[in-house]
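Lab meeting, item 3. Inverse folding demo.
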């Protein structure tokens, strides 16, 4: 479309306020828009295209004539040009788009283009329903935004993850335990935790070196993740101590951790090294009125009961009896 088309469209849209601006200035405005790097389109009150700059025409694969907005989008969908639609049903997409289009005097939104570019779109309503659409390329800004988001996510993961095993660290696990207990709230429910310790781990380090010790920690971590349920969480909370959070688990929690205990005892963790190891575990279940500290403390007591009983076993917490307290 030439400058005359644009000038006529502006007059019809009452942009010129009864043509108070010199025609030469309007022609200059038209040429300036063409060279600005901003994609521009003007739609009349019936949503038919009155003017389109060269960049808009290239992005939306425009053909000669004055198509409607729906016509343009249908052709883009058919030819896989222009915006990414994210659906095979163009009618559904148009219904959603038209419910927002012309809904406010001005609105801003982002458009993801099939060639990988991101555009910031601004729709402005003038006069008796004329719509001016401008599109600015923000691909570089989006790339920077994604880089910053990735850096943020990486930093968060590093702050919450044990660098050796890849499991959650103590900080993240205790936060998750707090969240689980908050979800129980007054309604109640089931929640169990298990503290697991690698038996005689110092002896493994002394006999085989810390590199082998690290491999044992990673071996246990992988076996633990493979044994627990999808909803459970496993984290390293100390040197050779691990916490398992088991939501919605009562008596089942002991069976899950006991299964892990058996698998570890039967495993051969390292090729070419004559080495086996075992674990001990203590399980405690949530009670009304519990705090994270009180629940953790009971699991810790159960763990040490398992160690005193000979290790390579899992015990549930049992409240001390009067006779045991007297002893």
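The presenter then showed the designed sequence:
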């Amino acid at each position: 479309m030439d400058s005359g088309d644009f000038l006529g469209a502006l007059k019809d849209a009452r942009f010129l306020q009864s043509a108070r601006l010199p025609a030469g200035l309007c022609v200059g405005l038209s040429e300036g828009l063409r060279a600005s790097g901003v994609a521009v389109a003007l739609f009349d009150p019936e949503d038919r295209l009155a003017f389109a700059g060269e960049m808009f025409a290239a992005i939306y694969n425009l053909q000669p004539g004055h198509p409607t907005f729906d016509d343009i989008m249908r052709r883009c969908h058919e030819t896989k040009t222009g915006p990414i639609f994210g659906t095979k049903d163009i009618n559904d997409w148009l219904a959603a788009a038209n419910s927002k289009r012309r809904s406010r005097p001005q609105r801003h939104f982002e458009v993801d283009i099939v060639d990988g570019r991101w555009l910031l779109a601004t729709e402005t309503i003038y006069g008796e329903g004329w719509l001016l659409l401008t599109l600015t390329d923000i691909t570089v800004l989006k790339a920077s935004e994604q880089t910053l988001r990735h850096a943020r996510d990486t930093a968060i993961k590093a702050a919450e993850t044990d660098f050796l095993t890849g499991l959650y660290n103590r900080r993240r696990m205790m936060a998750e335990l707090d969240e689980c207990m908050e979800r129980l709230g007054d309604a109640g429910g089931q929640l169990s935790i298990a503290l697991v310790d690698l038996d005689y781990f110092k002896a493994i380090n002394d006999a085989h070196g810390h590199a082998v010790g690290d491999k044992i920690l990673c071996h246990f971590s992988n076996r633990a993740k493979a044994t627990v349920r999808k909803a459970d969480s496993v984290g390293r909370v100390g040197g050779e101590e691990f916490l398992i959070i088991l939501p919605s688990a009562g008596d089942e929690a002991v069976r899950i951790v006991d299964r892990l205990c058996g698998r570890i005892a039967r495993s051969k963790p390292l090729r070419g090294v004559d080495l086996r190891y075992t674990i001990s575990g203590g399980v405690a279940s949530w009670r009304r009125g519990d705090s994270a500290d009180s629940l953790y403390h009971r699991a810790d007591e159960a763990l040490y009961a398992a160690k005193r009983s000979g290790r390579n076993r899992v015990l549930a917490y049992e409240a001390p009896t009067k006779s045991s307290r007297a002893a």
